[in-house]
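Predict the 3D structure for this chain.
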Amino acid sequence: MAEKKEIVPPKFDVNAKWDACLDLTVRRFVYSSLGGAFSGLLFFRSPVTRWASVAFGAGVGIGSAYTDCSHLFDGSPAKITESPAPPQHACSKRCGNQFFYENLCKESIDLNEMQ
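Done. Predicted structure below.
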């Protein structure tokens, strides 16, 4: 008898995601390492700095692959959110600068009135 194969939607196909991530990681690691080796040969004389350039390229490749794979698996390692706006003081409307604190604002208003 023939087996009944279930079709898994691409959103839930973990095997395809792992295959794509491994492929992406290997390609980016190799290409970034080669880019680091080429730039090391082009810019540096010392073997230590050349190897450091290769290591930096490899790290950039692995890091970018990790980021893309985490987005592929619907979760990013660290989302940067916008910080909330600082609270406005009553004085900030008069001074036009939200970073003035009330005492500094009063002093600046007093100095402006004296002039």
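The mean pLDDT is 77.
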